[in-house]
Structures are given as C-alpha cells and as structure tokens.
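Entry type: protein chain
Record version: 2
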Amino acid sequence: MCAVGVRIGDRRDGCADCGRHGPCSLEQATPFSALSKHHRVIDPPTMDVVQPMPRAIGIDLGTTNSVVAVFDVGQPTVIPTVDGERIVPSVVGFKPNGERVIGHQAKRQLVVYPERTVYSAKRFIGRRFAEIGVGAASMPYDVHEGEDGGVRFSIADCEVSPEECAACILSTLAQHASYWLEDEVVQAVITVPAYFNDAQRQATKLAGEIAGLEVIRIINEPTAAALAYDLVDGASQNVLVFDFGGGTLDVSVLEAGEGMCEVLATAGDTELGGDDFDRLIVDWIADDVLQAQGVDVRSDARTLSRVLEAAERAKCELSSAGEASIELPFVFAGGSKPFHISKTISRVDFEERAFSLLQRAGAVVRRALADSGLPAQKLDQVLLVGGSSRIPAVRQLVASLTGGKQGNIQIRPDEAVALGAAVQAAILTGAMDDMVLLDVTPLSLGVAVDGDKFHCVIPRNTTVPTADTQTFSTAGHFQRGVDIVVLQGEQGQASLNRELGRFGLDGLKAAVQGEPQIDVTFSIDENGILSVSAREVGTGRAQSIAIRGATTISRNEIDELTRRNKEMLRCQQRARESAEAFEQAQAVLAEVETQLEQLSRKSLWGSSKAERLIDKLRLAIEADNDPAKVLKLSRQLRSMLD
C-alpha cells in the first residue's frame, strides 16, 4: 500500500501515476527526515506532593500464583487469605452448578474437572489466538479463537476470556484485602512482566476494571522487586533483577540509590517459565508410559492433570534434593486397563533435559546486559525473584553470567513483586515519601512504511513516560488519505512485528508527492500504555487512536463481565459467611454438650431447653441451606452459658 512519508498507507480518489482507484503500490517516497522531521522527548516529570488518598493495594498477578500486599505500619506486608494462605494459585474453577471458585479450591478440582478449570490464563491475556502457537494444545480445557480473533475458553456452555479469568483472581485478592484491612479496597497497583507488549498491558488493566478496581498504575515486575528491596535509600548501585515466574522471564538492569531507581535496560521471554519445566517432566513421563503401555497419557484430560500435578511436585522437590519420586496408582487413559506410574527423576537428568530452556534464559540475561552497556563485573548485586528462580541450575546459570555473584533472596522470591507493588501504591497515595522511578519501554514502537519496512519512532529501552513526534509525507501524487499502521517489535520487516492497531487520516489537501506534512506522535504514559495521533500540518486535520489490546470488548460486554464478577464475589461472601456460621455452631455445640450436666443441676428447665435448641441446631446444620438460622440458634444456645 502507499504510505505516509516513508510511508504508511494510501487511500485516494484516483492515482495520478497508475490511474487506478484505491490502494496502489509505488516506489518509496523521499523521507522528510532531511527537511522537516523533528523530535521531541518528554523528560520524566518532577513529582508533586500527592494528597492523601484511600489505601491502595499491590497485586502480583502471576501465571502460576498471585499475591496481594499493602503498605502497613511503615512497611509492605503480604495479606493472607481468610484461610491464612499467603500465595493464591492463579486458577479459576467452574463447578457444574455454575459456581466459580478461585485459588486453592480451584486447584483441588483440577484433577476431577480439568476441562472446567482454567490455569495459566496469563499466557493468553492480551494475545490473538494466531499468536499462541502450540500453547493451546497442551491445556486440558478448550482454548479457541473468539470472533474478534482473541483467545477464548469454552467451559461447558460458557465462553470466557483470559481477561475475565484474570479479573476473577484480582477481585478475589481484593476481597481478601478488604476483609483483612476491614475496609473496602478500590485502588490497586498491578504488576506485569517487563516484556509485556502494549496489548497485554491494556488487557491487564481491563481485567482490573472488570474486577471493580481502579488501577492507579501498571508497573513492571522487576522494577517492583527492586522497590521491595528498598534499594533507593542507600548509595547508588548497579543491580540485575532476574525475575523467573511460572510463565514469563524478565531480566532488568537498573541503577538504584540516592532516592532514585532508573531502569537501564530490560529483556524478556513471555513464553518461558516454570510451567515449561513442568511440561518437560510431563513429556518425559508420557514418553516412558507410551513406550511401556502403548498409551499416551496426554490424550486424556484427567490423567494429564494428575501427571502435571506430579510433575510440578517433582520439580519443586528437585530444588532441594538430588532426586524425586513420582508414584501415580490406578491411572486410566485411552480406555486402557488401569496401570501404575512409578518413576524416579534425578536432578542431573532433569538439568540435562532442561538444557534448551536454560539456554533461552541465558540469552535473555546476555541481551539485558548488552543493552544496558554494563559489563557483568560492574554489577553490585543480583536479585532473584519468582518461584522458578529456586531451581538450582537456574541459579548457577545466573551466577555464571554475572561474574559469579550469588543471587540475593532475602525476600521470598514469590512475594517480592507484590511487596514492591505495595510500595508503589503507597507512594502514589501519599502513604510514604516519593522517589524518582524511571522505567523503560521493552520493545521498539513505530509504523509500517513503503515496501513492508518498519520505521521505528520510539526505540526499546526508552525511559517512560515519553513522547516522540516525527513528520512524514505522502508517497504518491494527490493522496487524499493515509492509513497509519502501528507496530511493536524489533524486526526490520514490518509484517514480522506485532500490529497494535491502525487508523486513517482522511481529507488531505490534494498535492504532489512529498508536499503534505503529517505529524505522527507516539505517547507512552507511566503505565507503559501507548496512544498515537496524526495531524496534517497544513489543514489541521487530526486523528488519533488509543491502543485497546488484542480483543475488541465493547463497553456493554465489559459491564456484563463486571456484573458477573460482582455476582461471583457475592457468592463467595455468602459461602464464607455460611462457613463461619456453621463453624461457630459446631463450636457452640461442643461447648454446650460438655456443660449440659452442670446446666441441669442449675435448672431442669434450662437443661431441657438447651437440648431442644441442640436438636434444632443439628437439624439446621444438616439442612445446610440457612446460615442465618444456624447463626441465630447458635447465639441463643451460647447465651444459655453466659
């Protein structure tokens, strides 16, 4: 297609060169760079004093597990669930009765209802179905393409998106926080992998909106980890953050100290994480079973879930032991007779099989160091973050690439990111002193130009927030409109990069090739989210686009998803209140029954009344349908002891 200046796209009333109407292909126009191209970069703003705001939480929305934290009594603190768990599995379960369960309860149903249990949804968030490759085939639940080209999950007769699943997790974490803080939580800082592209960041923010949260900032996970370690208050130092989670790897090199934290470079792999090591063990087991039994355990969803659970457990054991045993009795797969899986895996064999995964991780570290311009010897320390950083071979790899430095793990690797997000939330709401935090954009941004070329507007590792305006012109005579295709990536060939969006600028003044001047402005905010605008200098005609992500969810759909999420929270609240009522009733029953004899000595009437209440309470507990009645009877019975 014809394009703007160097060149973007062409819509015309008629082409003066070929006589055809509509798009045509012409030679590249002379770029305006030598004539009228100009460049503007916005320096990070100085921070004003922030007025106190309601308390906000920090959330690490992970692929495998998620954590919520808050800045409390002068320090960030992980908020436990009502069951006392500090880490919540990023799993959403859909029960046959329509109820949704989150976290540990959902993970427990994975073996029974694998086709109704969504895990690792973060791998799909903000991505088009065409981008996910073989990742969908390895899931026991149905993953397919939605009408808008995005990813969708089919759960029985219900279709859900990765964003909706993420919202379920976020709202559950916020509910735990509200319960723990005894105050409603509405604001949150949510972390994302540093290498998340614009669409994935937008999708994460949308998930927060569906969850009923005001997302006050999207922050990169390695940067959050640095905040958790409180590196900004001491002397200036060079730090490498190695963040290896369940589904993504991020490596950031930063300079921190003297009240400032500046990211020098970041690199990552959004398709490499602990889940890949789990699948490596699954394939190992499956190949052995296939050879011995002639059955592929990966073909049966329930069996695959059992094997996957055992593989994850073995991987964790190998972080502290030289070998791990896998025992799975009575395995059914492919209509075969039941058989037993018994296998011992040594750490040495595991590391040999994981060689290619480790090589990919090493390449990310090298790229981050190269982009930062810092040799490994100049690093002062290395922070190990994320559960997968516990793998011994991973730690050895990082040490070998950073001048032998042993990773700092003073903070639990699973919790560091959430704690840092809580620090950022406290800064933004005025709960703690401000600091200068300078992050970067992980991937280059630009436009498609003539000949399927990529013209970079904002290079990767540019400090954000930032804006850049460049001036282009038409590529053909008498163009009346142009199409601007916004891309993200590092490939010189435009079609090999990710298209973030496109928009048109019509009504251009008819002129010869190269005469119209069109300013194209890219602007990235503090969340790393992009907006693009174009303006013809001569006529003042302008058009803009806010990048919305891989899916085109309408406002009505968002409202409906929000409504469904609120209903899920109400169900969870009722379930918790019911559980508390029944737990209290059981405790009162036990206490009263031990004191019945004492009560009868005081009053025979009182004893018989207590026995009648006990019978009523037991019947109410067995009915299991009226927690309010159970609570009322419990209080009546309890009052007899006072």
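Comment: The longest strand covers residues 260-269.
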